[in-house]
Write a structure and sequence with these properties.
- This protein is of the alpha/beta class.
- The chain folds into two domains: about 5-35 and about 170-250, Rossmann fold (3-Layer(aba) Sandwich), CATH 3.40.50.10090; about 40-165, 3-Layer(aba) Sandwich (Rossmann fold).
- About 35% of the residues lie in helices and about 20% in strands.
- It has helices at about 20-25, 45, 65-80, 95-100, 120-130, 145-155, 170-175, 190-195, 215-220, 240-250; strands at about 5-10, 30-35, 35-40, 60, 85-90, 110, 135, 140, 155-160, 160-170, 180-185, 205-210, 230.
- α3 (about 65-80) links the parallel β4 and β5.
- α1 runs parallel beside α10 (about 240-250) and α8 (about 190-195) packs parallel to α9 (about 215-220).
- The model has no long low-confidence stretch (mean pLDDT about 90).
Amino acid sequence: MTIKKVLITQPRPDSDKSPYFELERKFRVELEFCPFIRLEGIPSKDFRKQKVDISQYSAVIFTSRHAIDHFFRTCEELKVAVSQDTKYFCITEAVALYLQKFILYRKRKVFYGADGTNKSLFDVITRHKENEQFLYPCSENQQDNDIVSWLKANNCEFATPFMYRTISNDVKHLFSKADFDVICFFTPSGVRSLLENFPQYEQNGTKIGAFGSNTSRAIEEAGLTLHIKAPAPESPSMVAALEKYLSNHNHI
């Protein structure tokens, strides 16, 4: 089947140099961008009710740029000074580099997984976890996931404070005007948004892509079939995974 129309469930990139647009040109496909979710910060007065003292934790785990934004927003609202000795463990190098927006990167202890998988993140944490107390900022909607399970199984001292909540966007208009050959998801919340918009959703031949193990699991738990999976050794990003898939279906 030739792929003609792909839905990326994220905002349209700001730069025309985004690799997504190169895919569009190379494989002659039409990409539509639309975020399925939006994030809302949890006010500091509500955060206080969780009784988590940020200053008591020596390490922070970040799996997204959004988590970084809301962690430092919360610290600023609470007037918490983050220690110079705090360690940061990030799911990917891109997430780690985003810390430069908030800290002097070279003077802090920043670590990230080799290939964007939870396993590579765990490998890094294992090498540095001695005597650390971990803070893992999460969405209010987030259930226990692989990272929480791993921290428990490895007897780590940790807290998972909610710093933001995920809200589903109304995306019904997208599907009223077009059929998509491929839909790419990046978070379990994005999958949940699809099902909230279309409780009786049927795949009907649409190919589905997922970034991250938690997103993949959410798709499978929804009874949908997963066709494109990232990160993987040969596909570290969704762009790379999508390119590999298109090269097998769109002959150029």
